[in-house]
Amino acid sequence: MEQAATPAYVIGVDYGTDSVRAVLIDARTGAEKAQAVHHYARWKTLQYCNPARNQFRQHPLDYIEGLEAVVRRVAQQVPAADIRGLAVDTTGSTPGPVNAQGVALGLLPEFAENPNAQFVLWKDHTALEEAAEINHKARAWGGEDYTKFEGGIYSSEWFWAKIMHVLREDAAVAQAAHSWMEHCDWITLLLTGGDLASFKRSRCAAGHKAMWHESWGGLPSEEFLTHLEPKLAGLRDRLFTETYTADEVAGRLSEEWAQRLGLTTDTVVAVGSFDAHAGAVAGEIEAYSMVKVMGTSTCDIVVAPTAEVGSHLVAGICGQVDGSVIPGMLGLEAGQSAFGDLLAWFRQILEWPLHNVLSSSRCSRRSCKPPCATK
């Protein structure tokens, strides 16, 4: 008689713009066992945001509360010992300032209500001027063009532009920020309780948004960064050199988070990644095929054998990074950042008469028949 396979489940956590979702997957079959969704409470009322300034910030408590809510709900469906792994993906670039212990500044009492101490959501465009400076100086400073593996055009939605903007705008945050972390990295650090200095940062996040590349030894040089902004001096040494792909183990759940989530400390936590790249994996992406991940924004993801692409550079995209989607393959990202938001805006325009005119009109009553005689 054949012995039954040992049960094995994994949890995927997906942080989107408006909500966080979790799925429980049978690792033996790929079948979905359970799912849960939690909408961010503070974000729902646009706390820490100023749309007129294109400022969109999210409080780390929204992330933490959502994490506990969705993971506990799906984890209750099977014995905790059967849940072997957990992985997180997030929007990006969504960096936030942290202290030397890796605690997000927004969780500290003195910064709890300061928008500059929160995570700077991917669609925050307050750093337009800083992005323009990066693009100009990357070509004019006389050294390496650090934007060349990111399509040659650096965006206000990305890591360095956002950090520069906050450092210039807020001296208190600039002084308190020992380092900065992408959302996917911070959640993974939170879950494992690891040391900030030795923590495994996401290759996906660093390569596509922070100008990280093996050919120049990691992040852009200290000389270039201080040429961009003197207030960046020393930050490079407090960030990272090595990066890791999403198939790597970041650590195991800490005792605190195993208890908070209803899991065990045997649960392995993977290195974090970005949502669109994880979506391409879920879409069973193959070499030279394109997966379109459509939501608040739309991302187009392609993978290709690294050796075949070689030194060829693709202009105008959002990065080409070895292993950012599938290990051993070059991940290429492009897209339409405002896609879903524009559709939502257009729908609101079309629906305005329904909510503001027709709903209060006598003609909206079922008893009213044309030609209308009301005056």
UniProtKB/TrEMBL annotation:
A GO term for molecular function: ribulokinase activity
UniProt keyword Transferase present: yes
Keywords linked to the UniProt accession: Kinase, Transferase
Its EC number(s): 2.7.1.16
Domain of life per record: Bacteria
Keyword Kinase: yes
Domain Carbohydrate kinase FGGY C-terminal, first and last residues per copy: 291-350
Transmembrane annotation, as ranges: none
Domain Carbohydrate kinase FGGY N-terminal, chain residue ranges per copy: 9-281
Class of enzymatic activity (EC top level): transferase
Protein name as catalogued: Ribulokinase
